[in-house]
Design a protein that fits this description.
Elements (H helix, E strand, L loop, with lengths): L1 E7 L4 E4 L9 E9 L3 H11 L3 H8 L6 E4 L4 E10 L3 E11 L2 E6 L4 H12 L3 H5 L2 H36 L3 H33 L7 H66 L15 H22 L4
Helix pairs in contact: 3-5, 5-6, 5-7, 6-7, 7-8
Length: 317
């Protein structure tokens, strides 16, 4: 799916059908391409003059985030959060050529949709009138804000998990911890890669950026550093939760083993005595004594009381 938005030479911002797009009629054009098929890729390549193979690079999830300068265009690979069953990340390819900014991605990126809606409903002219570098900044800023929103929501989940962990071991809680930890691993790796992109954008004097744009990218760089610190902190908290959960489970198992050991020890000697008197010998001590049964029973009870006393003195009971 291809959506096009541009600011005309008379200052009006309009949505345009891609097939009717005339590049020379607009000062700045933003083309967003979501999960394109081969035909749409071919049309894009023909319209903006970028090789099909290069456009597929922007769709490749395995591409490393970077800024790449070519003869007549720039390629920026950036990572964005992806909200599905598990929260992971996805790649966003950004091509900048002349007055065109093309965003291309396989998965739906909410930050792109929010910015598109913002431009249509609020004060959009500022974003387009300040040039292609400022539009690029707004796209990357919206992605960074998406990371921030998710991390803040994860903080609330962490607090809930802490309360559940203290109650005791729960398989569902452990699965939630592992899921959040997986998310933070993806986030940390992606944010570090995005930081490297922002380092280039804030330092390098690219023709597509102004001094003000570079200052904006520097602010975004520090925001990303803060998010990296948050992701690392949350991951350490989750690791501590896993350790606590496993420790509590070990303590619980030790308590169970302690109880089983006490029960086994307490009844071991009485069972041994009854086993001896179950032998088929013609003579056993006290076998012919009228009070033999009660004497042996009293002996077993005394032994049980002694063991219970010993365990109580040891703090096991």
């Amino acid at each position: 799916m291809i959506t096009v938005m541009g600011i005309s030479k008379d200052g009006k911002i309009v949505e345009v059908k891609f097939d009717n797009l005339n590049l020379e009629d607009y000062k700045l054009i933003w083309i967003d391409c979501y999960n394109p098929n081969d035909e749409e890729i071919y049309k894009l390549s023909k319209k903006i003059g970028i090789e099909i193979s290069e456009l597929y690079v922007g769709l490749d999830e395995q591409e490393i985030p970077r800024v790449e300068e070519n003869e007549d265009y720039y390629l920026i690979i950036y990572k964005a959060p992806l909200l599905e069953e598990d929260i992971t990340t996805t790649s966003l390819g950004i091509f900048i050529k002349d007055n065109i900014l093309l965003t291309i991605h396989t998965n739906k990126i909410k930050a792109i949709g929010r910015l598109h809606k913002l431009i249509l409903t609020k004060k959009p002219k500022v974003i387009f009138e300040r040039g292609i570098g400022f539009l690029l900044y707004n796209i990357l800023n919206e992605i960074t804000r998406s990371f921030s929103r998710i991390l803040i929501s994860l903080e609330e989940e962490l607090e809930e998990l802490e309360d559940k962990v203290l109650v005791g071991y729960d398989k569902v809680v452990m699965e939630d911890i592992l899921s959040l930890r997986k998310t933070l691993v993806y986030f940390n790796k992606s944010l570090i890669a995005n930081r490297d992109v922002l380092v280039i954008l804030k330092r390098k004097y690219l023709p597509i950026t102004t001094k003000e744009d570079r200052e904006n990218f520097e602010d975004l760089y520090y925001d990303t550093l803060q998010l990296i610190d948050m992701s690392v902190t949350y991951r350490e908290v989750l690791t501590s939760m896993m350790d606590i959960t496993l420790s509590l489970e070990n303590i619980k198992m030790n308590q169970i083993m302690k109880i089983l050991t006490m029960v086994t020890t307490i009844f071991a000697v009485p069972m041994w005595i009854t086993g001896i008197y179950g032998m088929n010998f013609s003579y056993l001590p006290l076998a012919n004594n009228p009070d033999g049964f009660w004497i042996i029973l009293s002996l077993m009870i005394i032994i049980i009381i002694i063991f219970v006393y010993i365990f109580k003195r040891s703090g096991w009971i």
